[in-house]
Amino acid sequence: MWSSTRSILWFALPLFLILSSIPAMAHHGWGWATDQEFEITGTIVAKRLGNPHGEVTLNVDGKEWLIEVGQPWRNQRAGLTEELLSEGRIITVHGHKSAKPDERRVKAERIVIDGKDYNLYPDRSS
């Protein structure tokens, strides 16, 4: 009896761990975004910087867009600071928008502030 229960646990536990990690992998990849390049300009109305990635909310023609920026190390490497992403600043975001037509969300690859480029993903052309 003990050995059959143990066998089930050895099989079920790894399967449970693999399946429970799928939603996290789906969120943090690029799968939710379109392949098409997208550009949007707006005024920062809110921000949350930190892990797993930062978020900036833009007001664009009276509608709010959620912009995913990089992880803290990626933002720092690109030269993006909290001050540059402060409320009231106008920025242009180059990246990829959500594949869901009604979702106003963009994964930023490059951000332009006061005419200067801040490239979050230098290995990608944006």
Q: Give the tally of β-strands.
A: 6
What CATH architecture of the domain at 38-119 do you see? Answer: Beta Barrel
- Specify the oligomeric state: single chain
Query: Averaging pLDDT over every residue, what do you get?
Result: 85
CATH first level of the domain at 38-119: Mainly Beta
Low-confidence spans: 21-27
Helicity, as a percent range: 25-40%
Structural class, from secondary structure content? alpha+beta
Describe the largest sheet. Answer: 5 strands, mixed, barrel
What is the overall silhouette? elongated
Description:
- The protein is α+β, with helices and mostly antiparallel strands.
- The protein has a domain at 38-119: OB fold (Dihydrolipoamide Acetyltransferase, E2P).
- It is built from two helices and six strands; from the N terminus they run αβββαβββ.
- The protein has helices at residues 2-28, 72-78, and strands spanning 38-48, 55-60, 63-68, 90-97, 105-113, 116-119.
- The protein has a five-stranded mixed beta barrel.
- A hairpin with a 7-residue loop joins β4 (90-97) and β5 (105-113).
- It is elongated.
Keywords, please?
2 helices, single chain, five-stranded mixed barrel, 35% strand, elongated, OB fold (Dihydrolipoamide Acetyltransferase, E2P), alpha+beta, 126 residues
